Amino acid sequence: MKYAILVYETETGFDNRTNDQQEAYWGAYRAYSQALAEAGVIAGGAPLHPPHAATTVQLHEGQRKVQDGPFADTKEQLGGFFLIDVPDLDSALDWAARCPAASSCGVEVRPLLPMNE
């Protein structure tokens, strides 16, 4: 079954991508990605630009409303995702617990819905 591991980060987490902590930050994610690949469970994923780079679109009475920045103003924002293919939720939770963000923020696990073709 396929699951999305959604990685949430604080502003500090996003800053660690480019400041003097960047080698440790990216090194942890490289190791995690390599472990997923070696286990044969990775199906995709990508880091995202920081929340200020987001653009949110909503329709109100048929009119498009565009807002710079993320939809929600919260302490933690979506920083990236991994798509994995594992036998069950317990396996997905085991992989999510190994994600570097799990020790400092939130990591959400969601099953993917199959697309009707």
From TrEMBL:
Residue intervals of the YCII-related domain: 1-116
Superkingdom of the source species: Bacteria
Protein family: Belongs to the YciI family.
Name of this chain's protein: YCII-related domain-containing protein
